[in-house]
Design goal:
Low-confidence stretches: none
Number of helices: 8
CATH superfamily of the largest domain: HypD, alpha/beta domain 2
Structural class: alpha/beta
Number of domains: 2
Order of helices and strands: HEHHEHHEHHEHE
Amino acid sequence: MKYLSEFRNPEIVEQYINELHKITTRPWTIMEVCEGQTHSLVKNGILNILPKFIRMVHGPGCPVCVTPLNLIDKAPYLAEEKGVILCSYGDMIRVLGSQRSLLEAKANGADIRILYSPLEAVKVAQQNPDREVVFLP
């Protein structure tokens, strides 16, 4: 798989780390927002080999990681309400609640739209003034 084997090659990793050491001449602060990213950085020892000028900040977590199950459970029912357009990120669509996912609600006819930014939900609302638009992060 492209990009998987390359990053498991110690020589290539060493080249990347050497390049990072060359270009970090002043402090950098980088936030990873997903628990999966944080886990990978720790598990693979990346945090230990980064240049001293690079500080990683562990973010709040992606929507899938931080959304409570009770909201995930309510979302398909909300999406199936008449006149509702439910907008969310693509990864949230596949998250299985206690009984079903938004993808299943979409397959049953719910108007669920995959967005890349919350601002897109504002545009959807402007284009559909007669409908209730809900953004689920």
